[in-house]
Write a structure and sequence with these properties.
The protein is mainly α. The strands form 2 sheets. It has a 4-stranded antiparallel β-sheet.
């Protein structure tokens, strides 16, 4: 058989074995990683004794293939690490990770450094291989593998936060440990002297530099997605290219950590991918990377575990003693971080408190896996290192991985049960019971309808319905006996549910191409604020987040400043149009949430809570309507255009769904469907081009709206236009502030303002002007002036005031008359 065929047989045989092990692991309640390591060790034993077996037949060729596999350490890292790390980063919930970023970084980066130092110093006192070698081993065993642990968490229903802490720790932990490993390996192979300051600088350079490379490369990749036009296979391929390209780019050309670069690129993809990559592609992309991650982790586990029999063949009592020291040192280092440093974050209000039960599970659940084995394998195959160093690292690292899998991995499930972490919290149990009662009641009603429609005997229907009634009564009794939630707790549950549902609605509208990509990103983030506010502050926190979400974005205010100081209005027009679109989508989402509350939450949480939720959502609807009204008043034509475009997009989506249903039902042929889809695609291209917003901020247009300038000739209007500067004032914006020096007056081209003076504020509208008294009297402002909506203003600076009035006695007289009138009626007025 050709050599390539034997190699293919070996790879496919290993993958076949990996595919058969998960159901066995589930059946015997063992983590998949444990079973994989055991299978690899068994294969290694077969390969060792297989030298005396005949090398014929499929099995003989398979053993020959396993024996002949030769992968260099560098090839091992370049082949497997990008896939393992990118898939782990892609699968994590980035938003939840950011919520616990402080403890995760502490568990990852700080814990890696502490583990490396504690292990290095402890072993250096027991052996003569050198401190650098001991530190290298410490970096290898500092990496954690969350696959087995998270699988157990999922099976037992452990708290979501515990899973996020473990997954996030492993992700950054791997990045930090491998960066430190690479640095120590370079020092060992080049015989550099250990310099604490230089090593620290090199570590930071590699870590931060890798993060920068990964971020920039990921953003550049997303810029290319727009050129792929939703081609699923091309988009998925580009993410694979990104993972490997960024690793090579960082390691070979920038000489920084490729591992950190891959992790950051994966996190950026996870954060932006759902709204930057075509929605139909995202699910396929996640599945593809999960498959690639499964192959990579399975192969690297099997390759490394196959070497265990050979590595441990000449293990002596000295190695056993060192293994004991290694186990104790890693445990002490991990406990010091969890019980010594982690509480300091809570005391400093940098993170929420992590319970002692969580800490114990994180301590015991620090399993080592594929990454540790890959690094140990890379050391054992590196001929540049002395034999004693390779033996020391390979034996202890491999032995430690097996210890964590066989001891910690097999006892983690009982530990979770012992701590009660496999049970729902009282709040979750109460919600579960209410959901069961609601669902069973609805099912019972539907059963009755089906039984009548299908003419089933009433006695049969009654017996089935009675069983549902009994189940409802049992759940109600259990709820009454065990858990009764307060109204505030139920309200908090309802608000969190509404915020989560709001995020889902925005994603659904994006998948339907009703919402633009840049808008949905902001909408999802702001719904996340609502969720966080409800979790931390209940109703008050939710309402505060809702008010914050209504504020203008930083980009919007920068665009306003750019227009005011530089006269550049394109960005401001774009931001106004984006705000228009977001407000429309939020309003429509709130209407759906009101319906969802009436149909589901009121029945689930009770009428009193449902009424409060309706009031809270109603206040948000009112705020949205006010914001939209302000925009409609100033830009009525654009409002109608946007609303029409929204309906056109909804209609196009419905049309697409109708065509898809018709081809599924064979009403139309595939050829007809393709033609209809092509025509609809052309229509989508037109609908994706949002019309530009004309803010009507040209000076001539605004000057023409001011009656004061109506009698002026064209030359005089051109002269005035050079002196006046257009400005768009936002709703509730303070145009003039009491107590400040007056340096300008304002002509109101459109809109209205409120002069906040005395008990009764004065309202001024289009054609009026404000701020002239300060220019005449040179006195500070004595009242605040606030915009009641969007206002087009013409700003006249103090230095241009006399130039404007010179040669125009009628204008001077008009301004003087108004000034005298205002001073006479209200001396404190502007």
């Amino acid at each position: 058989m050709p050599e390539i065929a034997v190699s293919i047989l070996g790879i496919t045989g290993l993958l076949a074995l990996a595919s058969l092990l998960p159901p066995i692991a589930n059946r015997i309640n063992l983590p998949f990683s444990v079973l994989l390591a055991a299978a690899g060790c068994a294969l290694g034993a077969v390969v060792s004794i297989g030298r005396s077996m005949p090398e014929t037949g499929v099995f003989g060729d398979f053993v020959t293939a396993l024996r002949s596999f030769e992968i260099s350490p560098e090839a091992l890292l370049y082949l497997f690490l990008p896939t393992l790390l990118f898939e782990a980063a892609l699968a994590i919930d980035v938003r939840r990770l950011l919520d616990d970023l402080a403890p995760i970084l502490l568990l990852a980066i700080v814990a890696v450094i502490i583990c490396t130092l504690v292990v290095g110093l402890a072993l250096d006192a027991m052996t003569d291989v050198g401190l650098l070698t001991c530190l290298l081993l410490g970096a290898i065993v500092a990496t954690t593998d969350p696959v087995a642990v998270v699988g157990i968490f999922r099976d037992l229903g452990a708290p979501r936060r515990l899973s996020i802490l473990v997954e996030g720790e492993s992700l950054f932990n791997d990045a930090a440990a491998i960066a430190l490993f690479s640095l120590l390996m370079a020092m060992l192979t080049s015989a550099q002297s250990a310099d604490v300051l230089g090593t620290t600088f090199a570590f930071l350079k590699g870590f931060l530099g890798g993060a920068a490379v990964g971020f920039v490369a990921a953003r550049a990749a997303f810029a290319l997605f727009g050129l792929l036009h939703g081609l699923r296979l091309a988009e998925i391929t580009l993410t694979v290219v990104l993972a490997y390209f960024v690793y090579v780019l960082a390691e070979r050309y920038f000489h920084v950590s490729g591992v950190v670069a891959v992790v950051v690129a994966g996190l950026v993809t996870a954060w932006h991918g759902r709204i930057r990559i075509t929605p139909s592609t995202w699910d396929s992309l996640i599945d593809t990377w999960a498959q690639l991650g499964f192959w990579a982790s399975s192969l690297i586990f099997l390759f490394a575990a196959m070497l265990v029999p050979r590595l441990l063949a000449d293990v002596g009592w000295d190695d056993a003693l060192l293994m004991l020291v290694l186990v104790l040192a890693t445990g002490v280092a991990r406990a010091a971080v969890l019980y010594g440093l982690l509480p300091l974050l809570s005391l400093g209000a940098l993170a929420d408190r992590v319970s002692n039960s969580f800490k114990l599970v994180i301590l015991w659940g620090g399993l080592r896996g594929a990454v540790s084995l890959a690094l140990a394998l890379a050391v054992s195959e590196n001929q540049a290192l002395p034999e004693a160093v390779r033996h020391f690292v390979a034996v202890l690292a491999t032995g430690y991985v097996l210890f964590t899998l066989l001891v910690n991995g097999t006892t983690l499930r009982p530990l979770l049960r012992l701590l009660g972490l496999d049970q729902l919290s009282p709040v979750d149990r109460a919600v579960r019971d209410r959901a069961i009662m609601l669902s069973l009641g609805m099912i019972r009603e539907r059963i009755e309808v089906v039984a009548v429609a299908d003419q089933i005997e009433s006695s049969v229907m009654a017996r089935v319905c009675e069983s549902f009634s009994e189940r409802i009564a049992a759940v109600r009794q259990n709820t009454t006996t065990n858990t009764m939630l307060s109204e505030d707790e139920l309200l908090q549950i309802g608000l969190i549910t509404l915020a989560t549902r709001e995020q889902e609605l925005y994603l659904d509208r994006f998948k339907e191409r009703v919402v633009a990509r840049n808008s949905v990103q902001i909408l999802i983030a702001r719904a996340g604020w609502l969720q966080d506010g409800a979790k931390t502050g209940g109703r008050a926190g939710y309402e505060a987040a809702a008010r914050r979400a209504m504020k203008f974005t930083v980009n919007f205010r920068l665009a306003v400043a750019l227009h005011y100081y530089a006269g550049i209005g394109h960005w401001l027009a774009q931001e106004l149009a984006d705000r228009f679109e977001r407000l429309l989508i939020i309003r429509m989402g709130l209407q759906q949430l009101l319906s969802f509350n009436e149909r589901q939450l009121t029945l689930l949480l009770g009428a009193a809570v449902g009424e409060q939720l309706t009031l809270i959502l109603g206040s948000r609807v009112t705020a949205i309507e006010q914001a939209l009204a302000a925009l409609r008043l100033q830009f009525p034509a654009f409002t109608r255009t946007l609303e029409s475009r929204y309906l056109d997009r909804v209609a196009a989506r419905l049309e697409s769904s109708q065509y898809e249903a018709m081809v599924r039902e064979s009403t139309i042929s595939r050829e007809v469907y393709n033609d209809l889809d092509r025509r609809l695609g052309e229509r989508w291209e037109r609908l994706d081009r949002r019309p530009a917003l004309d803010m009507e901020l040209q000076r001539e247009q605004l000057i023409a709206r001011v009656p004061l300038f109506a009698e002026l000739d064209e030359q005089r209007l051109r002269d005035i236009a050079r002196l006046l500067r257009p400005r768009l004032a936002l709703p509730a914006e303070r145009i003039i502030t009491k107590g400040r020096r007056g340096d300008a007056m304002y002509f109101i081209a459109s809109g209205a303002v409120e002069v906040q003076i005395g008990a009764t504020p004065i309202r001024l509208g289009t054609g009026e002007f404000i701020g002239e008294i300060a220019l005449v009297t040179h006195q500070p402002r004595t009242a605040d002036v606030v915009a009641l909506g969007y206002c087009h203003l013409l700003v006249l600076r103090e230095r241009d005031f006399e130039r404007l009035l010179a040669g125009n006695e009628a204008l001077r007289a008009r301004i003087s008359d108004v000034a005298r009138q205002r001073l006479g009626v209200a001396p404190a007025a502007l």
